[in-house]
Each structure stands twice: as structure tokens, then as C-alpha cells.
Amino acid sequence: MTAGRTFYRNATLIDGTGAAPVADAVVTAADGVIGYAGPAAGAPAPAPGDTVHDLGGRTLLPGFIDAHVHFGIGDSRQILFNNVEIPRSLHAFETAERMRRTLEAGVTTARDLGGTDAGFRTAQQRGLLSGPRLSLALRLVSHTGGHADFTLPTGVDLHACGGNSISEIADSVQEARVAARRLMRDGADVIKVCATGGVSSPSDTPDDEGLTVEEIAAMAAEAARHGGRPIAAHAQGAAGIRNAVRGGAASIEHGYLVDDEGIDLMLEHGAYLVPTLATFDFEDRVHLMTEKAVRTKRALAERTFERVSEAVRRGVKVAMGTDAGISPHGRNLAELGHLTRVGLSPMEAITAATRNAAELLGLADRVGTVRAGMLADLVVCEGDPLADIALPADPDNIVLVVQGGRTVKDTWG
Ligand SMILES: [Zn+2]
Q: Domain Amidohydrolase-related, which positions (predicted)?
């Protein structure tokens, strides 16, 4: 069934590969797949029955990919209290609304690293809800007292009961294997491990080490025995970052205090850094944070920007992730600007949020670049994001979003 092709013409194309922009480009799509992407001079001519969109000189980009979100969490206080305060039905509607807002901000694919169950992925695939296509971790794995342990000093475990828990506890190599098996059974696309403590967890710090090298390696081995899935490691302090890479993590999430040896290891293993710098834009959200989280975050900021800049300078691969849920949902592309503040060029920031993120998610043969044969995930942005990387951050500047060939946002008059 060919319903005719769709032509997008009169645009500057940034194709996500890092190649120079193509002025006066044409992109065609049919049955949800890109047929042609390149200069107008080499483009096929529209035939009767084809639809032609004139993009008026705007910039055409791949649908963006956010490699680190939490759609199930509205703000950092909810990480603690979601599970006990919010009925599952309300939680589902709130999650769906955050997904829709994220899609309309230009993110057509997202990796949720904890708090969103497999039903959302199915619902999105079936068209029951509008949002990015999902890659899911479901829950995060830590040891007792680690980043996924939400037991308060009173002994009350906020994640022990209720349906919105994001927690898996494992305290030995064998328990780590079982946790990985449970997550894969429940539909995880990626295994999220906590290699250090964190900012929002009640009883640890970013410098505390989390799961051991052996425990992380056991989960990586278990994933490899079942068709392979990447390990995403929450890792903020230097020692835990090294443990995560040695254990086989494909990505270091946050990576704030990576040391020189950690950078060496990341380069050697080809691990991605997902620096989630948007989370440092938090001063207007301190009322949503615990006192411990505010204090920890303020103490981290300066060294984080130094160490992440050093990793970028040394050539560590970067994929864009926002930790939305901790940072605001629906302003994901503000992270592009943060990435330029640690040394990426605007083009490199865009590539981090397109091709690189697609590679990290294992989806580079389908999404992340605008090329013939890829899914037609397209975003049209006002102006030139290479001249002003803040433009895509404002969802009002994202005037067209196409996902798998289907227009999901179209706001220009
Ligand atoms: Zn996170």
C-alpha cells in the first residue's frame, strides 16, 4: 500500500551524521521510511499523488534521542514519594502527558532509565499514546543502602510496596544475576546498574561506590547470554565510574567526577558518557529537592563541568541525556547548549543527540540520521541551530515533528 510519497523541500538539512549541512535539501518519505535525503539538485521529482511540504528555509534534523529520562517521575521529590502517594492510574496519565510533551519538544526516541514499565512501550507502539518510542530499563539495581534503596533512616522503605517502584536490590554476584534475569523477564531493553551513590537517594553520596566490578560484570554476562542488552551505569564518583567500565558498562550516566584513569578506561572500552548537565540548572527547583540533594548538587557543579570538559577534550564519546524527571520534561534540547559549555561544537552536540545516542541504544540502523532507508523521524526547527544552539531548546521553535512518517506536531501557520 503506497499512499504516495511525502516531500519536504526548501530546508537546510543537518542529517545527524556530523556531515556539513546541506542547503536547499529535499527529503522524501513513503510508508514511514526515508527514500531520499540530499541536495534538491539530485532529488526525484514529485509525482501526482505525492504531498509536498515547503519548509520555508527552516532547518530539518533527525528526530532527537534522549538517552536518559524518567517519564514516571515529575520531579526529584517524586522519586521518593511516587510509590506511596500517587495511585497507579494517575501515575500512568501523568507519565503519558510527560511523554507527549517530550515528543512535541522534538524527541522521537527516548531511553527511560527507571520508573516506566513495559506497558508504556507497548501503548506507544500501538498508537494508544503519543510519545517517543521507548527503550526501557524498568528499574535500577543497587546494593542495600545504595542509590536504588529508598529506605529512610526510620526504617520505612518507600519502595517496598506499591506499583510505582523503581528499585531492585542486589547484594552479591548471584543476586545481581537474578536481578538482571528478573529485569529481562519483565521486558528491559537495557540494564541500569548503580555503580555509585547519588544526589537524590537518602543514604549515600556520589563518591560512595555501588555495585562491585564482579556484580556488574555478572549482569553484563547475563544480558549477553540472552541476546545482549547494554549496561547503563549510574556513576558519579571516580572509583565507581572505573568499576562500571571494568564491569562492561556501555555508558556512564552522569560521570561527573571521572578521573584521568576513568577517561583512559572509557576510551579503551569505547564507553559512552551521558553527562546529564541539565540537572545542574536546578536553582529554581530547590523546593522540589531534599536538603541533602541541594547541598550535594551545589558541591558537585564546578568540578563536574571541569571533569566532563576534560573527558570531552580527550575524545570520550558523548550521547545526550537529560535525566528528565530530575531536570524538567519537555525542554530536553536545552541539553544541547549545556554540551557546548563542556567543549562540544553545536554540530557535535546535535550528533550526540542523534547518531551517537542511536548507537548507544542499538538503534542506529533505524533512527538518529536522515538517510535513505531510515525511519522517517524528522524535526523542523526555526532558524539555524548551528548559529544559535539555544533555538531547539524552546519547544515553540520545533514547528514540525514527524515520527515513523506520521506527523505528530505541526504548528507553523
Ligand atoms: Zn536518572
A: 59-408
Cα-to-centroid distance, 115 and ligand 1 (Å): 10
Ligand 1 centre and the CA of 110: distance in Å? 13
| Residue 135 resides in a domain | yes
Per-residue pLDDT of the chain in tens (413 residues, 90 and over written 9): 457 999 999 999 999 999 999 999 999 999 999 999 999 999 999 999 999 999 999 999 999 999 999 999 988 777 777 778 888 899 999 999 999 999 999 999 999 999 999 999 999 999 999 999 999 999 999 999 999 988 888 888 877 766 677 899 999 999 999 999 999 999 999 999 999 998 877 778 899 999 999 999 999 999 999 999 999 999 999 999 999 999 999 999 999 999 999 999 999 999 999 999 999 998 888 888 888 888 989 989 999 999 999 999 999 999 999 999 999 999 999 999 999 999 999 999 999 999 999 999 999 999 999 999 999 999 999 999 999 999 999 999 999 999 999 999 999 76
Ligand 1 centroid from CA 58, angstroms: 33
- Whether residue 1 is contained in a domain is answered as no
List the one residue out of 222, 219, 195, 220 whose CA is nearest residue 209. Answer: 195
| CATH number of the CATH domain containing 329 | 3.20.20.140
| CA distance linking residue 274 with residue 16, whole number of Å | 17
Cα(68) to ligand 1 centroid in Å equals: 6
**How remote is the CA of residue 332 from the centroid of ligand 1, in Å?**
13
Task: Please check whether residue 298 lies inside any domain of the structure.
Answer: yes
Q: What residues make up the domain containing 284?
A: 65-361
In a shared domain, residues 212 and 337: yes
Using alpha carbons only, what angle is made at residue 152 by residues 148 and 158, rounded to the nearest 5 degrees?
60
Residue with cell 540533594: 293
Same domain, 183 and 309: yes
Q: Rounded to the nearest 5°, which phi and psi values hold at 54? A: -90, 120
Q: Same domain, yes or no, for 239 and 154?
A: yes
Residue 16 CA: distances (Å) to CA of 21, 43, 62, 380: 9, 19, 6, 13
Those residues whose beta carbon sits under 5 angstroms from the ion ligand 1 are 323
Regarding whether 31 and 12 lie in a shared domain, the answer is yes
* Residue 123 within a domain: yes
Whether 123 and 226 share a structural domain: yes
